[in-house]
Predict the structure.
Amino acid sequence: MRKIWVVIRREFMERVKSRWFMVATLLGPLFMAAMFVVPVILSTRGARERVIVVLDVSTAGFGERVTSALDGTEPIKAVRVAAGVERLENVADSLTSLVVAKELDGFLIVTDESVNDGKIEYRGTNVSSPRDMQFLSRDIEESALTERLTREGVNPEAVRRAKIDVHLKTVKLGGPKGSTQSGEGSFVLAYAMWLVLYMSIILYGASVMGSVVEEKTSRVIEVLISSLRPFQLLAGKVIGVGAVGVFQLTIWGASAAVLGGQQAAIMRAFNASPEVTASASLMPHISMLTAAIFLAYFLLGYFLYASMFAAVAAMSSSEAEARQAQTPIVMLLVVPTVMMIGILNDPNGSLAFWLGIIPFFSPIAMPVRWAAAPVAGSEVVLSLVVLIVTLVGIVWAASRIYRIGILMYGKRPTLPELWRWVRTN
Amino acid sequence: MTDSALELHEVTKRYAGHVAVHELSLEVPSGSIYGLLGPNGAGKTTTIRMIMGIVKPDTGTAIVLGVKDGGWALSHRIGYLPEERGLYKKMKVLDLLIFLAEAKGVDRRVAKTAAPEWLERLGLSAWGGHKVDQLSKGMQQKVQFIATVLHKPDLVILDEPFAGLDPVNSQVMKDTVLELSRQGATIVFSTHVMDQAERLCESVCIIARGEKVLDGRVADVKRDHHGRHVAVGVQEGLASIDKILADKSLVAKADNYGNFAEVEMAEGTPPQKLLTSLLSAGAQINRFEIVEPSLHKIFLDRVGSSAATAVAVEP
């Protein structure tokens, strides 16, 4: 035990003292702060007035209606240019050159047909902005609706009065102690869980791999192995790197909590209007149970993958070889990532259920499920039991491969050879 | 505890497809300097790994410091300098030495005082705070040597300790090894350079292709092969001399250079008989000397030059 501790301390201290650790640890909170601030900056920048021309070749006044609807909207300034159908392409060409010269953001072509078939064309530089396009289509839809209702003989004033804006507020029900969470908050939490778990398991797992390969290629292993049992070395290394991970995540978690508490103040400091501040997705509430589940799956998942990474490193003779050999392991981690949308769309469906049970996927899939929707306690227990049993088996096999691999150089072993390594005493 | 620091009894180790060490037995007297000699690929490193308990022999037993199959339980009493040297390049020298001593079970505080003392002793005290990769190759070798002996081992195993050392550092290393020996440590070192072994060791074991060729005290080994090698110098070439040297009843082997020859006598034939034959053939002899063979020569005679140069990849 004392010797494992010696290895743990070296791995921990050497990593924590490194420049990489300092930079990454500081960048975390900066990144989180940026997540609050960047949307604010973008929204203030996005508030720049958009100048749009409504090229009106309609005859029944629909163009005027669209123009006034658009012009009334906050960031859009709309100007109507009337033209006959026969001059349409000529005017469109000169408007295009104005857009190219950046004097216009774009122009809308309104025809008589538009009211009947709902088809309308917009040409501009901001077509990839979902926000702008949302404004455009909402206003045009409104205008078309009003126009058509008027034609049916409905009083335009009545149409205006009947209109109402709907804001859907979503609340997640169920879960432990009937806690509630906004739907958006659930999504943010699930997404954050995936990001942090995926990144940290891959980063710290690969870090274990790098460390094993370094000892092998630099031949330090020859000295170490005369002092330490392979298992002491492996355990110390995996635990030491894991401790760095927990330490870093704790720093990030604490700064996230502080930043979350100060979110409104931070956003005000960047001149966000009160409405923007209120509508910004606030830090989701994280209960102790959620934090515990996150930590449990992080640790178990990390140990599972770090053992596999260590075994792969031990059977490789160089950094390049190890990077090549790690591909199957990384693929295992990618599976729950690819299926993320599936889990979020139906957190209690059979896909989500099985991803949460299969041990190589559950470390990422289960916390994501948990964050997205209420999950039965029995399912979590089942998932954890399967994961722990697998972990024990993998650690056993990995330490046996490690034990022999670290002293072998040259050709990478074939699968039958690996199996022999695992079996030999 | 026995008088032997180390005993191997017919140890055999096979790797997939080939036998690395075959029924090797040897005994290292306590407090001696012992040489494990053999060409590259002879099985030296595998033998050392079995002594260290890093690999288990397939058959046979290893008794180290009086303990059978001690393995890692003994590691704190053994110092090991591997043939393939390597250190953590990004660690500071002092931190690294303390870590390696702790890995051997030395108390952290003890290591913190012992490490600077050793750096001082080998002229590296200014480098304790530097990273390993800022040191020259020779200095790194010294650091590695300190790591081998920092925990005051009873048994020191050095695998090719002089490989890659310049003459000055080589001398420093030799002096330190002798000093350790005087303090009572048993030293086992492996080398393929037989001349070094001849000068340093009290006893040797020569192995080739995983098997023992001979072992014993250097003095005994030489005496056993003494009296069979003769250097002959003659005034001028005589055809009859060639005939005498080709006589298998007299001479086992001869390197004939015309007016100088290195001769190995046939088994049981005294050198005087050769001298008599040469004189009666009328040779003008200006040199006739019974020479003490070098270990290298003995080794070549025993295994033939093919085994001496056979280079297999050491597992």
Summary: Residues 175-179 of chain A have pLDDT under 50 and may be disordered. The radius of gyration of chain A is 30 Å.
